[in-house]
From TrEMBL:
PROSITE patterns assigned to the protein according to its UniProt record, in alphabetical order: BH4_AAA_HYDROXYL_1, BH4_AAA_HYDROXYL_2
Similarity section: Belongs to the biopterin-dependent aromatic amino acid hydroxylase family.
Cofactor(s) recorded in Swiss-Prot or TrEMBL: Fe(2+)
PANTHER family referenced in this protein's UniProt entry, alphabetically: AROMATIC AMINO ACID HYDROXYLASE, TYROSINE 3-MONOOXYGENASE
Keyword Cytoplasm assigned: no
Superkingdom per UniProt: Eukaryota
GO cellular component terms attached to this protein's record: axon; cytoplasm; perikaryon
Keyword terms: Iron, Metal-binding, Monooxygenase, Oxidoreductase
A molecular-function term among this protein's GO annotations: iron ion binding
InterPro entries in the record: ArAA_hydroxylase, ArAA_hydroxylase_Fe/CU_BS, ArAA_hydroxylase_sf, Aro-AA_hydroxylase_C_sf, Aromatic-AA_hydroxylase_C
Signal peptide residue numbers: none
The protein's name in its UniProt record: BH4_AAA_HYDROXYL_2 domain-containing protein
Species name: Onchocerca ochengi
GO BP annotation list: dopamine biosynthetic process from tyrosine
Amino acid sequence: MCRTGFTLRPCTGLLSARDFLANLAFRVFQTTMYVRHHNSPHHTPEPDLIHEFIGHCPMLANPFIAQLSQQIGLLSLGATDEQIEQLATLYWFTIEFGLCRQNDQLKAIGAGLLSSYGELTHACSDEPQHVTFDPQRTALQPYKDSNYQPLYFVVDSIYDATIKLRAFAQNFQRPFAVIYDPYTESVEIIKEMKDLKNGLNRFKGELSSFTEAVASLEKKCG
């Protein structure tokens, strides 16, 4: 997924929530290696290759979904067990089973819905409950992994969901902040002002390029 820098890495079995989310921080998505049973083609309680390739891969090629996924991963670094559980729940109700309202219609953004015709039909019907996405509530909402969900959260947009997630994370008490460096594919730990130097230099360079692009467009339009 060269558009967003995410890479796929096969793994056997299920990872812990902490390990899975930590990989997302580095733009690495762990994929399963088996295919659902032919007796249940429309739904699988566990992730399989159909789920990964039809659900996650197309969405991780979308910059906004990729950013939201990585943001959840970055927030997991150094998080407590309780916070990991909350972040995993937020991931479940957005990246896995999230809905988005567009032109008064419900659209699926979750990979679990996109790869499950049965649950996709269920989620967009009037049968389940649809609730506006609120990280404070969503993070504490119990969920089922063995059957269709009785409740789905609906975001106004992926960008709005990311902003709400960042605001929610302000309640996390960590002795450091983290910044992802896409050039070295590493995470920088920010504890003191001097630790911001590399990130600020990258930001200045990107801002300079953006400013030049705006100036060039203004000349053409002027």
